Amino acid sequence: MDPVAFNPNEPPPSGVSNPAFNGYRADLPLCDAHVHLSADHDFAWDAQMVRGLMEHFGMERVALLGLPSSSHRENVDAGNNARCLAVKRALNAERPDRFVYACAGLVLRNGGRDDPGDLLAQARARAAEGYDGFKLLVGKPGQRKRLALPLDGPVFAPFFSFLEESGLPVTMHAGDPPDFWDPARAAAGGTWAYDASFPTLARIRAEVEGVLRAHPRLKLTLAHLFFLGDRPDEAARLLETYPDLCFDLTPGGEMYAGMSRDPETWRGLFLRFADRFLFGSDSDDWHSSDDLATYTWNFGFIVNLPRAFLERTEPFRFHDCDLGVLRPLGLPDEVLRAVYRGNFVRRFGERPR
Ligand SMILES: [Zn+2]
Fold it and tell me: Does the residue 136 lie in any domain?
């Protein structure tokens, strides 16, 4: 079948809502489990970005994930958690039907110098300040290399035990797209190329599973489908083995190309584990232009790629990227309601803390 031409980044005609313009099947409530404010902007910019993102895409809830140390040019912003919390409080005070959550990242010393007591103290302090959960970027290869400690070692154990006991969720970026380890990529000098000085993907995955084994009740959400778009068998094994594990569907476009190679199997997984996937976009103020009104342009791709892939029934392609022909899942409404809203509410709470 010929792919259906589809450009989600064209601005909708005036008076037409974005979901309707994009041909989504149903006007479903949408909650975004993965949003950042990691660029250097002031409070008014941050607040307007989140406000506008929610209004433009019809989002009922978003989770702001703090990144005291982001992967963008290894940006360090020790105040990033507090920025997320401030935006959460301000926006929730504006409207009773808008729910913004904030998850805190850890401030790390790196170089093998992190201390279990310090990480536990950070977790207790952030929980007491009203954060709704935590965000870990330490599984990203560059950050894991700098950390110079295993994720499943004794340094993180008290932190994870505290999360397990308190029931607070944690979203973790662990790994990266498998081809980032391709030696040809490193030889070509491209960005996101990992040579032998970085931990392997297999090692990072094994450490994450070590955490899950040691903390079976941890509400762990692995971001970007744990980069398993081409391995539905492994995704199924993890979901079967660890009942509190979830995946978020934040692009990485490569996940969607991977799932498109076997959409029948993935569709089966979504039906079987409907309560284990969360919608996420990775919207970040790094993406936003100076004109904050251009939401479709800024965030259209990362919001609409997951939606189009989950909802559409005919093969399609995005005009503005090279993912090739995507073969979508055409999920039933009850599964979409779980992925878009129900799972978010169960994970982060009916109301922000
Ligand atoms: Zn992210």
Answer: yes
Q: How many domains does the chain have?
A: 1
DSSP per residue, 302-331: HHHHHHHHHH--S-EEETTS----B-----
81 versus 186: the higher-pLDDT residue is 81
All residues with CB under 5 Å from ion ligand 1: 282
Q: Per the domain annotation, does 1 fall within a domain?
A: no
Distance 13 CA to ligand 1 centre (A): 30
Residue 6 located in a structural domain: no
In the structure encoding, which two tokens stand for residue 131, read together?
Answer: 């954060």
- Residue 70 CA to ligand 1 centre (angstroms): 9
* Torsion sign across C-alpha atoms 265, 172, 280, 290: negative
CA 345–ligand 1 middle distance (angstroms): 19
Q: What is the mean pLDDT of residues 1-8?
A: 50
Question: What's the CA-to-centroid distance between 38 and ligand 1, angstroms?
Answer: 10
List the one residue out of 249, 330, 304 whose CA is nearest residue 7.
304
CB 292 within 8 A of CB 48: yes
Model confidence pTM above 0.70: yes
pLDDT in tens, 197-242: 999 999 999 999 999 999 999 999 999 999 999 999 999 999 999 9
